[in-house]
Protein 1
Amino acid sequence: MADLLELTPQGLYCREGDFHVDPWRGVPRAIVTHAHADHARPGCDRYLCAARGTLVLRERVGGGAPIDTLRWGESLSINGVKVSLHPSGHVLGAAQVRLEHRGRVWVVSGDYKVCDAFEPVACDVFVTESTFGLPIYRWAGPDRVAAEINAWWRDNQAAGRTSVILAYALGKGQRIAAIVDPAIGPIVAHGAVMKMVRAYRDSGVRLPPIDGVPPRARRVGDGRALVIAPPSVAGSRWLRLFGEASVAPASGWMTVRGIRRRRGCERGFVLSDHADFPGLLGAIEATRARRVLVTHGASESLARLLCERGLDAAPLATRFTGERPPDDATDDEADEPHDVRAAVEEGV
Amino acid sequence: MKDFAALYWRLDATTGTSGKLAALRDYFSAAPADDAACALHLLSGGKQSRAVSTTLLREWAAEAAGIPLWLLEECYAQVGDLAETLALVLPPPKADAAPGEAGLAAWIRTTIEPLRAADEPRKKEIVRDAWRRLHADERIVWHKLLTGGCRVGVSRTLVARALAEVAGIDPAVMTHRLMGGGIGSADDYRRLFSSEPGDADSQRPYPFFLASALDEPPESLGPVADWQAEWKWDGARGQVVRRGGACAVWTRGEELVSDSFPEIVAAAAALPDGIVLDGELLAVRADALLGFSALSRRIGRRRVTKKVLADVPCAFVAYDLLEEAGRDLRDQPLAERRRKLEALSLPAFPAPGATLQLSPRLAAATWAELAATRASARDRGVEGLMLKRLASAYGTGRTRGEWWKWKIEPLEIDAVLLYAQAGHGRRAGLHSDYTLGVWHEGRLVTVAKAYSGLTDAEIVEVDRIVRATTVGKHGPVRICSPTLVFQLAFEGVARSTRHKSGVAVRFPRIVRWRRDKQPEDAGSLADLFAMIDALPTPEPAT
Ligand SMILES: [Zn+2]
Ligand SMILES: [Zn+2]
């Protein structure tokens, strides 16, 4: 029997249902796991995503094309293929896509983080990400990371330095705002982060007060603020708005000192919206899938390990950007929209 | 352990001198003497040895982490540092572990020294127990101790300054007390803080005064008459200390190498007492310089066999006098020190058969004349000229403007990138160690391995090209289809039977990326042989 999903120049394609999952080119019908740029591209005629993710997806793909939605677990039949979406714990509205056709069940994980929100979905074939698919990646609890950030923020305040934390505009930025202690000082966000903060709030997510950066501002804050900005501002003019600043990326890659040092940052926080290595193995096991297709990052080694453990596993050559080496200074764990760069240039 | 690990990471994270100085000061003012003595040994680049093989460590770590060995190797390729890789793959320490409470000295005494003599099962037991007690940051440092590779990026001068500040004594005095290492115990360490001059100082050398590379035209240095010119020897910098009826030979690495140079020690006994000579250790037969590689057969050896003594005869060529009749001359101008040095009547190089020789002054009335002399340097087997201001005192460390190395231009060839491997440390995960080749009979043959001399941005770019042009892999080494051409500089080239290409280049390094060239434009083996033929065999430098 043919595979339920196959790789075409446009991306993962379901022939039976005549739709794509996270295509990287414009297609008639796209099911989108989440709104990061490597998974959601503008230019499709019609989108389907989780109801929770509608507003952020709209931010990403612009107006025009209709976005259909499904509530968690709700199913829809597309040309006889039963489609349902299940939380992946990655960013707001990020879904795993479950496809069922003639007794076969495939699940495409998109990007996922093993947390309370993540829902393991049993399947025959699991298409998993592997951004941090090496055993060196093991995350500490969010409380510990929050405590580290808070302590750093306080130290910087004492020295009159602004604290600038580099994080993805979608997901990581909001997560940081949610875990730090807002009593320490004002939280300020870059325009690109702010846009997604609004989408989060409009979707009903509670976040502490966050200030934007006024247009044409010459100087912002007095060294007390925590600034959340996308990684692309590193080394840019925009950063000068804050005077003396300590800049620290927040990313899973910060586990490795060499990568941290190459960024020229004295600090870095290990904080990721992706599963760590134990998380990946646990999630894969929980699906009870016999066959595993691995995308992103460490796909070859994770597939090899799974094979050695008796699964039928193989890497899948997608264009999800975790495959980029971590030295790419502009894009980190994934996903920075191009308009962020434009925003940086404008000084917004 | 906790405190030393904290120091290690603080130094690692600090780029500025004042920050590093503060870190050192904080550590030494709080550390117990036995820990401080160990730390000092490590910080000053003292000898370390491997207590357990990295092969075993890898196996045990993979086992403890529950992963296959190949996966650990993949992690290593990404992390670029074995100590860190092991620390990261291991399961976190026991929550109830009281980690670094014991000090550095105790850790070394209980977990590193016993390893050397232990059998394998016992070794494993000690290592696994330590893993259970250490946090990732501490593990990295401990692994480095274990494998004898604990190096910290601080200069000895800075360590000396920090200790001087803690002790409240003159940094120069502290630097001198630290010379020659030998701080093995808490008592040795405490003696550093003594307010009286120590008696252990008797055979210690002076801190070496260093030269900077001259990158301006020499005319910028003013009148040539203000300068003393000598050959820049291709040997090892050293001091001969003749005091209290004994003699000692030291290298610039502050290593006591008297045992490696018995003939120099014997010859120095003829000097009057209370003399310290600064100069160069050279491998020299009759009047032919044998070069640095020959010298390395002597310098690295604790015991020198009769055969090596006969194969590699050595001499000490003196160019400065730092102490006379027990009096420190370093504050006097070079002209005065030179006068006194010449008064010792050592025969000037080349003086076949003499073990102690005088480095001759090269006379020149104009810079142009000196430039002509310098042009003959390669033929003579020397690296160029040294220019020393006649009015200069003998300082410590490197003082720009007083002493210059005016080296000859390196040899160069354009070579093609054939293999690339990920680098370490700051370049972890980036392909920055290159193997380069030149043409021979229609094929590219490897001639040199060079660490990148490119800018950080270029390295990232090259890394991307390497990944995109990889045609095969050999472990961590990527085989690339030839696309990139680099200008390769090197100090020397010689025929070699140990290299497949038949040539060996010395100190190869990449000067620049020749984006303007295609692989077809690269040099050939024939070009290298032509360079060899153009070099005269080592002959008397007159
Ligand atoms: Zn994502
Ligand atoms: Zn992704």
Protein 2
Amino acid sequence: MSSSETLGHFGPFGGRFVPEALIGALDELEAAHNSALKDPVFQKELAHLHTTYTGRPSILTEVPRFAQHAGGARILLKREDLNHTGSHKINNVLGQALLTKRMGKKRIIAETGAGQHGVASATAAALFGLECVVYMGEEDTRRQSLNVARMKLLGAQVVPVTAGSRTLKDAINEAMRDWVTNVETTHYLLGTVAGPHPFPTMVRDFHKIIGEEARAQTLELVGRLPDAVLACIGGGSNAIGIFHAFIPDKNVRLIGFEAGGDGVETGRHAATISGGTIGVLHGTRSYVLQDSNGQTVESHSISAGLDYPGVGPEHAYLNDIGRAEYRPITDAQAMEAFALLCKTEGIIPAIETAHALAGAMIVGKELGPESVLLINLSGRGDKDVQTAADYFEIPL
Amino acid sequence: MTTQLEDLFVQTRSENRAALIAYIPAGFPSQEGCKKIIAALAKAGVDAVEIGFPYSDPVMDGPTIQEASGISLANGTGAAEVFSALKSAHDVGLPALVMTYWNPIEAYGVDNFAQEMARNGGSGVITPDLTIEESEGWKSATDGAGINTVYVVALSTNDDRLARVTARCSGFVYAASLMGVTGARTTMSSGAEDLVSRIRTCSTLPVAVGLGVSTRAQAKEVAGYADGVIVGSAFIKVILEAKTETDAIAAVDVLARELVKGVREAR
Ligand SMILES: Cc1ncc(COP(=O)(O)O)c(C=O)c1O
């Protein structure tokens, strides 16, 4: 029996819902990943890239001035924003790029919302000499135009997608169509813990280093585990990356913050677990924003990287078994936290990440000044300067 | 009991010819227009019809079917409209299937969907993104309802898997002729014939070939080695290009008659 019959499920979630044309490639990828996990040469190469290219381990920064607005809790930021290319996305991309080489493929395709995954993919393609095509919703090419220019400078081809809501969901559709057509030569470098098996497991494996480092760093800095670990949720990769090492630590709360847009009650949001129902989207069973006919409902968020009507299946599972909690944060709450971190700590976060910071302002007040909160600072906000300037009416 | 679809293949095999199967999304170009086109297909000699359940994220479809699905969704097509189109095919005597991405079935309720298929005279359902690993519940639902389950196999499907997927099929096996999304192609891929012969070594079911067939010559070529020829995008294209629904029906009639000839002149 092939492992695809037994693996890839998180309780009732996950699995594979894809055309047969992709099964061979998914099996090949799963086999390559499993053998790489056991291959010391592969692991050494990846570790070398982490230290000499990405800049790992990323540091932990305590932010006391920001914490004054969060009930006085001790707040620690895991600085994935300081990674090369400016977000956590590079961890997964370097891992998958090495697997691409291992499988003998010469072309990668990727979807991107905020552009961070696209930039990381274009970067790895340049580093390894791979051809790279990035699919990006037309709406996102507008709101993240700086990242479009970065990808082009790095030698990638950026294809604006004009179908549907012209955001991340539609970029994934187009990438899947490319993959079905060119699967023999092409690896689909999916950027989050969603999609068909083995992506949710594999992408998590490449990101779990975030939590492993942060757990040890927190123990060293404060002498105990944090009370809560917080992260924003798009597809869920930065969150699963920092959560994973803490899952066995039953007293550590794991809290994911989804994009609440204008508010879950308005219907204009991307809070998939808080406001969605169970369904199948992009090859996996999880929570989905959908109508009664199973049609995907368009999501809304000020943050391109969270503007997705699905979520990784492992998060759906962690939610249903009660191990992790998921809460919505509105655009307005996120932008308030964004501005606050800039002014109190001199750190401009990505708007995606600002959702976790807004969450910390709430959770810190709930848990009080004795508590320790660890937040995944998943990315930096350079790409969001235009959006933030518009939002705060700063003339450019 | 056999389905109308199974009876069809018994008949076409006895006539030593392939069946011509047309695809059209429910609610396209309009709810009533779709039913008129189904009636026209029947009159022109098409043997069976696949009713598409339009879906918001059609990752296996090229631009033509994407556009048709978009129009159909804008026309308010949901499960009720799909079953209504299905019934209209049954009413004009055509064996009829539904072709759908998996999520609409799950949203409707797996057992209810299978039951409603049978109640409206449907022979079976084609589920191109349901892998056999995820198909336990669907198998018992469709067994209970007495309808066929058609899975799609690809050029890249290895022999071991081909045996396991075709074992889950009933009615026919859908062989995708090329690696890629739906849409008309100018030439047929050479791999399709090889795939069909690989299927024959592990399954006695009829094999229908789809993806890319659009002309009489292509239909003839495929009908030479397959039990069924499936045409989708080519019909949709002539409907999209027509100025009025009357023109669309006339154009469908012309294309269908050409394809019927192609299928019947193959052997
Ligand atoms: C900085 C940053 N954080 C978070 C996300 C959301 O993705 P995920 O939930 O997979 O971490 C993105 C996606 O673009 C991002 O750029």
